[in-house]
Specification:
- The protein is built from 7 helices and 11 strands.
- It is an alpha/beta fold.
- Helix 2 links the parallel strand 4 and strand 5.
């Protein structure tokens, strides 16, 4: 099956003091360059669409040009919310694409092994999301801080990207969910709402998302170690 990758990179990094996470240098390369490298080394990926913001589009265009990747990379403009950016990227994929892999630019620790696992699982299930066990006990709380309930941790996982979907399912989902799209934080949630069966596969605990300064410190350490290996 032909597989296209969509990389949402149009955020503004508010929880990181407004720093652009896609362009953030980590162990000598921007976060997005680490992601592009892992995708380009993955034989399963046939094309890549990077979704940029008005603010970072020019820098991302030039980064994609100097990267000399084996596969075609296009850059398009995103929207005000992550889900809108991803949809804009999906609209740019070639008509021949059957599977779409979505991966955040803010997760620079992607590996080609994780991509391989994601695509293999998508061939089996049609809609899959990388997930890792939850290590903390999770509590649902009310606005005044009172604990409402404590779900059994053994039933909980933390969702990551990559997430891979049959493109016909994702397109059908976009038709069904309409405007409620903008409020969700990942595409798996949309497919669940549209009634498609979504399966998890083992993610990678190192595949963290750059959200706060602590994440940047950890990612820098892990990528510097990878660079030495
Ligand atoms: N993203 C996007 N378009 C948006 C918002 C986010 O493409 N309108 C992308 C980000 O660039 C990132 C990924 O979605 O690669 C995950 O989002 P998140 O970690 O929330 O990044 P930001 O939105 O940039 O950060 P914050 O929420 O702290 O502002
Ligand atoms: Mg965000």
């Amino acid at each position: 099956m032909t597989c296209g990758a969509v990389i949402p990179a149009a955020g503004s990094g508010q929880r990181l003091g407004g720093r652009d996470k896609a362009l953030l240098p980590l162990a000598g390369r921007p976060a997005l360059a680490w992601v592009l490298g892992a995708l380009a080394r993955s034989a399963q990926i046939d094309e890549i669409v990077v979704v940029a913001s008005e603010a970072n589009a020019a820098a991302i265009e030039s980064l994609c040009q100097v990267s000399e990747l084996r596969i075609p990379v296009r850059v398009t403009l995103g929207g005000a919310e992550r889900a809108l950016s991803v949809r804009a990227g999906v609209e740019c994929l070639s008509p021949s694409v059957q599977l779409v892999l979505i991966h955040d630019a803010a997760r620079p620790l992607l590996t080609s092994e994780l991509v391989r696992r994601a695509i293999a699982m998508a061939h089996r299930h049609g809609a899959v999301v990388a997930a890792v066990p939850v290590v903390d006990t999770i509590k649902q709380v009310s606005v005044d801080g009172r604990v409402v309930t404590t779900p059994d941790r053994s039933t909980l996982v933390a969702a990551q990207t990559p997430q891979v979907f049959r493109l016909d399912w994702l397109r059908e989902t976009y038709r069904r969910v309409g405007a409620s799209l903008a409020t969700v934080t990942d595409e798996a949630t949309l497919l669940e709402r549209a009634g498609f069966p979504v399966y998890i596969f083992p993610g990678d605990p190192e595949n963290i998302k750059l959200t706060t300064p602590l994440d940047v410190t950890i990612a820098e350490f892990l990528l510097a170690r990878r660079r030495r290996e």
